[in-house]
Structures are given as structure tokens and as C-alpha cells.
Design brief:
By secondary structure, the chain is α/β, with parallel strands linked by helices. Helix 3 packs antiparallel against helix 11 (274-290), helix 4 crosses helix 11 (274-290) and helix 12 runs parallel beside helix 15 (381-399). The chain has helices at 4-8, 12-16, 33-46, 56-76, 89-100, 118-131, 148-154, 177-186, 206-209, 234-239, 274-290, 292-311, 337-346, 359-364, 381-399; strands at residues 21-22, 83-86, 109-112, 134-137, 159-165, 190-194, 213-217, 228-232, 250-254, 257-260, 316-318, 327-332, 349-350, 352-354, 370-374. 42% of the residues lie in helices and 16% in strands. The structure holds pyridoxal-5'-phosphate.
Amino acid sequence: MIDVKKVRQDFSILINHPQEIYLDSAASSLKTKEVVNLINYYYDHLGTNVHRGAYDLSQQTTALYEKSREKVAGFINAGIDEVIFTRGTTTALNTIAGSFREQLKPGDEVITTELEHHSSIIPWMMATKRSGATLKYIPLTDEGRITVENFKKVLTSKTKVVAITYVSNVMGYITPLKEIIRLAHEKNAIVVVDGAQAAPHLRMDVKDLDCDFIAFSGHKMFGPTGVGVLYGKKSILDKMEPYEFGGEMIDTITKDSLKWQEVPTKFEAGTPVIGAAIGLQKAIEYIDSIGYENIHQHTIKLRDYTLKKLEALDGLTIYNKTADIGIITLNINGVHPHDAATFLSENHVAVRAGKHCAHLIADRLNMGATLRASFQIYNDFDDCDALIKSIKETRDFFNQF
Ligand SMILES: Cc1ncc(COP(=O)(O)O)c(C=O)c1O
């Protein structure tokens, strides 16, 4: 059980803006005080680079930075040297596609879905375009789900990569990943998972999933912006060429030869996002202290409550009534979602409007732009009521013309 009043005390934004009804956590969750405090500690007390200084302050910074890596590794059940800090999911997914495109050739196939966020699909569109490989899509069900059955229809011995989301940021569906990964491995394909929307809602155990790569962002899981994680299996990372080049990732260099550092350093060229990476460990500790089961139950309870009341209203189209996480994607009929979101904002209700950087699914399901309300542990039934009331008012206002 989540004590929302207590939880809200963990987030300065909600203390500083008590009137705000924040229902856009799928875009960016709020950050805990502890996360911000540790980042401030880094800037106020350490402020130095990592892995570069023999002096005490740099050693302390390195220790905190590496402690965060250790935390992430434990969090996803990975080895420490399988955790690479990136700027976010986008950078992580580009790193993999950027490296693998060198190995793809005409005749090879990459499988993806129309459910992907642009950061999961565009890197592979570019990789296949540049290499001459073919990009294939898993046919979605009518409600927009990925199924194992449909995956089998596109998987072939030519499949080299499967780039797939764990949880859809528009529909809130959870992909049946384990079976898809098992089948992909039977064909020796690698599976790259976009875990951006999974990280705030469910335990991602990389050993249990057996995925080859998974990417996620700190800012969607109560952590800082500017840091993300790329997990990769050590055996693959060892063989993979880095995508970015620069300082620290080089072991030896002569005028015409290079030897990379070991993983993960090989993939962290230049000065990393030190403060944010340090802060991430506090977000992980926070999730562990709350527990994924509690997060899931709470957000689903808010979703169910809201959905029931919205379904009783005329003039709405709700697109994801069977979502597996706490998000609702809808339209007020005849009202552009940007107008609606602006109206909602007048009542301090913050939701996302648009195609959510996932245009293919918006087009595939003929939704166009939509409103998306996403729930987190700091939301309560009052927030749901405010959303419902504002949606009703918006509908009535536009319907009078
Ligand atoms: C499913 C999904 N994948 C990838 C991303 C990209 O994450 P970031 O912008 O943190 O790189 C997002 C962000 O909205 C997302 O929802």
C-alpha cells in the first residue's frame, strides 16, 4: 500500500507546487529529494572528473560514480561491466544501431514494430537504409499489441536484430518478451529492448529475460535527466565496436593503430554525465524502498478508477482500455488534443498531448494526436477526479459551439 501523502513529501516539486496535478510521468517522472541532494553533493563537495585524477576529490567522485554502476547492475541483475552510462535511452539505442550497422549487409533482416518510440525505430531505419538490410514489422493485433504468434510470422533465418519495446509509451502494453527473445535466439538474432517505459513500472531482470541489450533513462524512474543506461551482454560488448570515440575509451594509440579499453569504458567516450549518473543510484534505492509491486498496484488502481468514470462520459474516445500499466490515452471527440491539454493546464492538470514520438502507432490505429494521462505513486484519487472534471469541462466548453 502506498501512503501518497508521505510519498509526496519525497518530491520537492510537489511541495513547491501543491496545486499541480502531475499526470505526465510517462514523459518524465518527478525526481526525489534524495536524488537532487546527492547531485548537489557532487557539485558542492566534489565537482571533479572521474577515472582521471590521482587526487582525493577525483577518487571520491570515481567511487560514487562506480557505486551507481554497481547499483544499476544489481537493479537489473547484470554484471558491473555490462552497465554503460549514456545520456538516455536514445543515446543507448543509437549506440547499438550505430555499431551494428557496420555488420549488417543486404539480405539481412531487422525486425521491429509500429509500436516503437522513434528512438527505438529510427536508429534501425537508418542502419538498414545505410547497410542495405531489410526492415520488417511484426504485424500488430487490431488493438495494437505485439504477439508471439505474429512475431513468428516475420522471424526468419535472415533475422539479425530484433529491436522491440518492453512497454509501449502510447498504449501501455507489455510485450511478451521472454518468448520472443527465446525464439529470436534460436535464429541467432540479437534482441535490443527499449526499456524506457518498463523501468518505472516493472522489474527488468536481464538474466531472466535473456535479452542481449536493454536501454532505459533515469528521468522516467524518479532519477535525473541526462543519464541513461545501456545494458549489454559482456560477450557481445567485448566483440562490439564502439560508436563514439574520444578520451578515456582508448587503451593504447599509435599514429596508425588503436586498442580500445575494456568494457564498459570502451563505450563511455569523453567525460561522462557524472552528476546525473551519481544521482541515479538514489532513484534505484527509492524504487527498491517502495517496491515495484506497490508501484504497479497503485498506478493500476488509479487507472481503473479514472477509466471507469471516463467510460461513463459521452464524447470521448479511449484507445487503451486494456493497458497493462497506469496510462490512459484518449481524445475528446472534436477537440484537438493540444487545445484540450491547454484547457486542462488552466486547471493545473498536466497531461501530454501529441503523437508521443511514436507516430507509426498513432497512424496505424487511426488515433492521430492524443491526450495521455500517466499515473505514478505521488498521484491519488483527487488527481484522478481533477482530471475527469477538467476533461468534462473541456468537452462541454467546445460542444457549446
Ligand atoms: C518507450 C520510450 N522509448 C524511448 C524513449 C526515449 O527516452 P529518452 O528521451 O530519455 O532518451 C522514450 C521517452 O519518451 C520512451 O517513452
